[in-house]
UniProtKB/TrEMBL annotation:
<keyword id="KW-0732">Signal</keyword>
<dbReference type="InterPro" id="IPR017943">
    <property type="entry name" value="Bactericidal_perm-incr_a/b_dom"/>
</dbReference>
<dbReference type="GO" id="GO:0034144">
    <property type="term" value="P:negative regulation of toll-like receptor 4 signaling pathway"/>
</dbReference>
<protein>
    <submittedName>
        <fullName>BPI fold-containing family B member 1</fullName>
    </submittedName>
</protein>
<feature type="signal peptide">
    <location>
        <begin position="1"/>
        <end position="21"/>
    </location>
</feature>
<dbReference type="GO" id="GO:0002227">
    <property type="term" value="P:innate immune response in mucosa"/>
</dbReference>
<dbReference type="Pfam" id="PF01273">
    <property type="entry name" value="LBP_BPI_CETP"/>
</dbReference>
<dbReference type="InterPro" id="IPR021193">
    <property type="entry name" value="Bpifb1"/>
</dbReference>
<dbReference type="InterPro" id="IPR017942">
    <property type="entry name" value="Lipid-bd_serum_glycop_N"/>
</dbReference>
<dbReference type="GO" id="GO:0070062">
    <property type="term" value="C:extracellular exosome"/>
</dbReference>
<feature type="domain" description="Lipid-binding serum glycoprotein N-terminal">
    <location>
        <begin position="36"/>
        <end position="257"/>
    </location>
</feature>
<dbReference type="GO" id="GO:0008289">
    <property type="term" value="F:lipid binding"/>
</dbReference>
Length: 475
């Protein structure tokens, strides 16, 4: 008998093995720069960022210490500014955002190019003097570690990109007006970046926080699995190059809302494919996928009066039994009954690009529907090719064919016999009864809510050696 020392040694070895293992999350949601750009742009529109730019108080900004505090220059400039009736942004645009790794490589830099035209009105000329202004705002997104070790995405500052400011006249006018305009432009050069930082950066931060909140909400949308549901939640975010990866935990809940299974980080492997040009991908670990299939296909009992439902199959079954026992075959009446029990849930086995489902099945044959004891009971290990595909925004699964890989005689009331004699007919029964029943339950598919929520019409999917990957279908 093992002593305390042996037990302690084994526990120590196990702990050391787990400590050295790379723990994989149940799922990973990878967000490429295109989806980040699109969602942040949408949130900037929602917060009326362009309207904020159009309301920038340019005139009051350049009137604050216009000559760097030098009295004589200040008086000259103030006399020039007195000739300005108004100075306003007449048009503003936010050009296409750019997402790239930050200079330190520890976060994301979101570059937001701004294109604006300001109108300058002065009594010196009847037309509006137009000043073209271009600049770029850079916002930083990082992963921050809190006091308890929890990590989360944060907005880590916003400023004008160095050297991005360009101010020019759209149209040249008279020498006097040009001189006035150039004076105004020289005052706008220091004032505009400050205005953008104080007026626009808070809007960019609010847009990011809204985007982040929407993302977390979308992650937590329950995935319907018949009467059960699967729920994901954020474990921790990481930034890898220009990709945000959200490591997700998962839990399975029954129809009463009770958690029946938790999924956390474990030594089970998870291969997260490189995102490349795909907007996003959801990579789900094999055990989580298997639990989803289990929820859709719980253990059940199927009872069929074979002669009524499948008379040709009933006739072939009788012929096969006649080889074993003619007396038993003669007892089979018009209400001969087949009972199929799936006592254990299907087990999903993934390989690169393919999947197989293995099931343990009990099959019993009764002479009539009034018989209390079966002729025989067979234990069958059956397998099917599992075909994953997508339809609109739903992940679909279908079992193709079914084979009896192993068959065992559990008990017999008609004498001992080799169960291999009934292998073909039992396979036909499973194909005709069990397979359509299971495919019928799988027919509704599994909704992937983020596909349409992010503006994509269809989903796509593929398998790795240890995971199922869902992406948007791109043309």
């Amino acid at each position: 008998m093992a002593g305390p020392f042996t037990f302690t040694l084994l526990c120590g070895l196990l702990a050391a093995t787990l400590a050295g293992a790379t723990l994989s999350p149940p799922a990973v949601l990878s967000l490429g720069r295109e989806i980040i750009k699109e969602r942040l742009t949408q949130k900037l529109n929602n917060h009326d960022a362009i309207g904020i730019l159009q309301q920038l108080p340019l005139l009051s900004a350049i009137r604050e210490k216009p000559a760097g505090g030098i009295p004589i220059l200040g008086n000259v400039v103030n006399s020039i500014l007195n000739h300005i009736i108004w100075l306003k942004i007449t048009s503003a645009n936010i050009l296409q955002l750019q997402v790239e790794p930050s200079d330190e490589g520890q976060g994301l830099a979101v570059r937001i190019p701004l294109d604006m035209v300001a109108g300058l009105n002065t009594p010196l000329i009847k037309t509006i003097v137009e000043i073209h202004m271009e600049t770029e705002v850079q916002a930083i997104i990082r992963v921050n570690t809190g006091e308890r070790g929890h990590t989360h995405l944060v907005f880590d500052g916003c400023s004008n990109s160095q050297g991005s400011l360009r101010i020019s006249l759209l149209h040249k006018l008279s020498f006097l007006v040009n001189s006035l305009a150039h004076t105004v432009m020289s005052l706008l050069a220091p004032a505009l970046p400050k205005l953008v930082k104080t007026q626009l950066c808070p809007v960019i931060q609010a847009a990011f926080e809204d985007m982040h909140a929407d993302l977390l909400h979308l992650v937590r949308v329950p995935v319907s699995l018949g009467s059960d549901r699967l729920e994901f939640d954020l474990l921790s975010p990481t930034i890898n190059g220009n990709i945000i990866q959200l490591e997700l935990g998962a839990k399975l809940l029954n129809s009463h809302g009770d958690v029946t299974k938790w999924f956390n980080k474990s030594a089970i492997s998870l291969t997260v494919p490189y995102l490349d040009s795909t907007p996003f991908s959801l990579t789900v670990r094999q055990d989580v996928v298997n639990a989803a299939i289990t929820a859709l296909l719980p253990p059940e009992e199927l009872v069929v009066l074979l002669d009524y439902v499948l008379p040709e199959l009933a006739h072939r079954l009788k012929s096969n039994i006649k080889v074993i026992s003619e007396q038993a075959a003669n007892q089979l009446g018009p209400t001969q009954m087949v009972k199929i029990l799936t006592r254990q849930t299907p087990e999903l086995l993934l390989d690169q690009g393919s999947a197989k489902v293995v099931q343990l099945i009990v099959l019993e044959v009764f002479a009539t529907n009034e018989a209390h004891h079966p002729f025989f009971t067979l234990g069958i290990e059956a397998s099917s090719e599992a075909q994953f595909y997508t339809k609109d925004d739903r992940l679909m699964l279908n079992f193709n064919e079914i084979s009896s890989d192993w068959i065992h005689l559990m008990n017999s009331g008609i004498g001992l016999f080799s169960p291999e004699l009934l292998k073909n007919i039992t396979t036909e029964i499973l194909v005709s009864i069990l397979l359509p029943n299971e495919n019928g339950k799988l027919r509704s598919g599994i909704p992937i809510s983020m596909v349409k929520a992010w503006g994509f019409k269809e989903a796509s999917s593929f398998l790795t050696k240890d995971s199922l990957v869902v992406t948007p279908a791109t043309s």
